[in-house]
Amino acid sequence: xxxxxxxxxxxxxxxxxxxxxxxxxxxxxxxxxxxxxxxxxxxxxxxxxxxxxxxxxxxxxxxxxxxxxxxxxxxxxxxxxxxxxxxxxxxxxxxxxxxxxxxxxxxxxxxxxxxxxxxxxxxxxxxxxxxxxxxxxxxxxxxxxxxxxxxxxxxxxxxxxxxxxxxxxxxxxxxxxxxxxxxxxxxxxxxxxxxxxxxxxxxxxxxxxxxxxxxxxxxxxxxxxxxxxxxxxxxxxxxxxxxxxxxxxxxxxxxxxxxxxxxxxxxxxxxxxxxxxxxxxxxxxxxxxxxxxxxxxxxxxxxxxxxxxxxxxxxxxxxxxxxxxxxxxxxxxxxxxxxxxxxxxxxxxxxxxxxxxxxxxxxxxxxxxxxxxxxxxxxxxxx
Length: 383
What we know:
Layout: H1 10-24, E1 29-35, H2 36-44, E2 55-62, H3 70-80, E3 87-91, H4 105-110, E4 115-117, H5 121-130, E5 135-142, H6 147-160, E6 165-171, H7 175-183, E7 191-195, H8 196-202, H9 208-214, E8 218-221, H10 225-241, E9 246-248, H11 260-269, E10 270-272, E11 275-278, E12 282-285, E13 289-291, H12 300-303, H13 305-319, H14 322-333, H15 336-340, H16 372-379
Helix pairs in contact: 1-10, 2-16, 6-11
């Protein structure tokens, strides 16, 4: 196949869906598509309506905006509100409307903070070069897919001596949260549709430890309708045969081995954190990265360490009192985490489509272009 229309051929889609239905029979399988891009494709193209009742799709924690805890949003905004008033905070478009406890970047921009949307970390670096009297901070998010771009930008900033540029690093890795999901006694996952974008960096073979350690098959999948249906078909065939292997459905894009150039850049600029807090999943060991000592001059958490520590102390004092405590509890009790873990469908949330909409989101899952709640709201049938 050479053209995208071929991956959306109605006859091939129907034929593949019928083969899946015939193979599933009366059995029941719980399959997690880790990536929010797959979730959106499933509902955009109506694939869930073609699948038999025996396949239950579980939406996983593969949306980098969605898994970011609200405290990290607030810390980024605290940097933007530095008392010196010389900070320009740059964020990706999805991040502009992600709410922290104290508001979203867009709301804080409306209140006077200098917060700007960028399309890449290089855009942020250019802003720093054009505003040498300002401190420009890039709010970095994403899995292995976007981390190399941040790393290369930091390397370039050091090479060019752009001292007023720094990065607030929130890059995470995909394997630890998959392990966390499988380790959760409440979860029962039979197999995974693996993120194809991440695999362009870690390689399809990067998922082998999931198949090996948990005896769960993983199919690295593309994002077109036929990609996803073929991946589900491959998964069911493995499950029927009692197998647990990694298969690469997305061979036209994804190699089996990791990208050596990306690996070298990442290992040069980043090191693993001991632990990192995930929305809904809690603290997960070795699941995120930070800048190495060599690049610490460009680490916003180092540069603004005193400010962030004061912010954390003030935040805990504020949330220990009355109304603020109740407000925080309301957010903490919101079911975003349950949806991220696959324990609840978006439409089962009492806020869905009422208090929480894409125009006025309560949680990040309704904001992101990869958020499962946004996918349900935009594409799924709702009663």
